[in-house]
Write a structure and sequence with these properties.
Blueprint lengths: L9 E3 L6 E3 L3 H8 L5 E2 L7 E2 L14 H13 L11
Antiparallel strand pairs: 1-2, 3-4
């Protein structure tokens, strides 16, 4: 297992197999696939663009992992080919 922080790890995109860092996965989906997944807010936490649920802040404990997991668990959408996030 990599000792690199989760948000800096590189995984293939589930749709196009390009290598993407976890930190840039939402920007990747918007620019490459034309699919906006995050609704960034000036005040307060970002929200899921699909269901409007507030997502954990990236700096929260396991924030990035919980953001990626939200799309897998709630929308059946695997963003990265990471296997099981556990």
């Amino acid at each position: 297992m990599s000792k690199r922080p989760f948000e800096r790890r590189i995984y293939p995109c589930e749709n196009c197999s390009r290598d993407v860092t976890v930190r840039s996965v939402f920007r990747h989906y918007e620019t490459i696939h034309g699919e906006r997944l995050l609704d960034p807010r000036r005040e307060g936490p970002d929200a899921c663009a699909l269901c409007r649920l507030e997502l954990p802040a990236p700096d929260e404990t396991h924030g990035w992992k919980r953001r990626v997991r939200h799309f897998r668990d709630e929308h059946g959408k695997r963003l990265l080919d990471v296997g099981s996030l556990g």
